[in-house]
Design brief:
Shape: globular
Distance between the termini: 27 Å
Structural class: alpha+beta
Helix content: 25-40%
Number of strands: 11
Strand content: 25-35%
Order of helices and strands: HEEEHHHEEEHEEEEE
Length: 285
């Protein structure tokens, strides 16, 4: 499993919060939308051993080895495993990831403007008393055992409160680009134009999910067990998901896991990638 054992352990032992899957709050008055630049926190927003190219906002995970064994030796063992995996990933993927440099900020800004225009939301996204929505994009490669990688967009959205307060709303959206390729090589994500096209499509899907959320379109709640490959996981896993919107080819689902999990958030889930079965569990609050 690409997600670290440490993350799973934390999700079971910590005081769980579920802010990353909360519905959009009713904001009094219009809001402004901007694209943020804050990096991911290396303390709590990245799996152990993940390679993070901060300037290009790209995360590579799924390649990690020995993290579970490292945990048996306490904090020192975890830190050693983390450092070893990061170093190995940088040596293996760093050069190719750098060559895939694409301005995610500009892509996201363009997708926000396109969605706003298509939905005729100009009157609701103007400066005013409602607050400021900051949207920050990232790309996540998840490598499987065969060496191929899936590409996901992760979109963080925060509705700011007053200057000294916590955000009124702080969520994440994940969406996958089509295809599965190595990160390096002649038929890889680094082939000219492939990464740029893939991440643009994934960000478009994530931004569309955000706008559907803001317009109150996620009104159903169907509890399921979804089995498939989520961002950060190298293998298929089965997780609790609250489906809030159905389409012919995909569903929108909120993962019923705590915020401490790096893949927590609302997922754009292609039906071809997952199987779903009805389940009964307590709705996270």
């Amino acid at each position: 499993m690409g997600l670290t054992v440490a993350g799973v352990t934390l999700s079971l032992s910590a005081c769980a919060t579920f802010k990353h899957i909360q519905p959009y709050p009713s904001a009094p008055g219009p809001i402004t939308v901007s694209v943020g630049s804050a990096p991911l926190s290396k303390m709590n927003e990245l799996p152990l051993g993940a390679f993070y190219d901060e300037p290009h906002r790209i995360v590579v995970s799924g390649h990690q080895k020995g993290v579970g064994v490292g945990m048996m030796f306490g904090l020192v063992g975890v830190l050693v495993a983390d450092s070893a995996n990061k170093s190995a990933a940088e040596n293996r993927f760093g050069g190719d990831v750098t060559r895939m440099a694409t301005d995610l900020t500009e892509i996201t800004r363009g997708e926000l403007a396109r969605e706003q225009a298509e939905r005729k939301m100009a009157d609701t996204l103007l400066p005013g008393a409602g607050g400021q929505l900051v949207v920050t994009p990232f790309a996540v490669f998840t490598v499987n055992k065969a060496g191929n990688a899936r590409l996901y967009a992760m979109l963080k959205a925060e509705l700011k409160g007053t200057a000294d307060s916590e955000p009124r709303w702080s969520v994440r959206y994940f969406a996958r680009a089509a295809g599965e390729h190595p990160i390096a090589g002649s038929d890889s994500w680094s082939v000219t134009g492939r990464y740029a096209a893939g991440i643009k499509t994934a960000l478009q899907r994530a931004v569309s999910a955000l706008f559907d959320e803001m317009q109150g379109r996620y009104t159903t709640e169907r509890k399921t067990l979804a089995k498939g490959r989520f961002a950060y996981f190298a293998d298929d896993v089965e997780l609790r998901v609250i489906v809030v919107h159905d389409e012919r080819d995909f569903v929108i689902g909120r993962l019923a896991v705590g915020d401490v999990m790096v893949m927590s958030g609302t997922q754009v889930m292609d039906r071809a990638d997952f199987t779903f079965k009805d389940a009964d569990f307590s709705t996270p609050k």
